[in-house]
Amino acid sequence: xxxxxxxxxxxxxxxxxxxxxxxxxxxxxxxxxxxxxxxxxxxxxxxxxxxxxxxxxxxxxxxxxxxxxxxxxxxxxxxxxxxxxxxxxxxxxxxxxxxxxxxxxxxxxxxxxxxxxxxxxxxxxxxxxxxxxxxxxxxxxxxxxxxxxxxxxxxxxxxxxxxxxxxxxxxxxxxxxxxxxxxxxxxxxxxxxxxxxxxxxxxxxxxxxxxxxxxxxxxxxxxxxxxxx
Length: 229
Known about the structure:
By secondary structure, this protein is α+β, with helices and mostly antiparallel strands.
């Protein structure tokens, strides 16, 4: 009986010692880790994902990466296929990107028209699609907090009038125009200056709205990304 107890205690000590040793090794590996992956500001240490650098490239196992996105990955060695299934939110993100690609303006007037339509329909996503990267970084949080809805039901921006075009340089065009403000039993006018610039982004090269100025930034309700004219 005593012998069994001694063996059990010895085995317990060995298991405990092994566990502590594994924890120390894991801690050491994390401390020496040179690469960490951040997904939506959440950190995934390289000792978990198996990140390594090889021939100037940073490599991550596809199954671990899919898991980090709460998805799944399957590998068929006979067919040399890797199949990755990502959550619905990721698929919707790809869909939004494709829609934005379709809205990419190839002329400055096209960028203006898309922005105006976004205001008229109170569609923040449509406005955001033609915003420059800098303007996006300034407005993304506010758009998201307002569920991508801008403006108000009354008054709202209707047709634009007296459109004037000023060519600043080869890559910058400025539009000045008046717009009708329509509400029940009431009509008014507003004034705007919209600057559009041709630039190359991580999406593609096209024309993007870089600045929006309104005589009265609040005349159409909550209009995101505008300045006082």
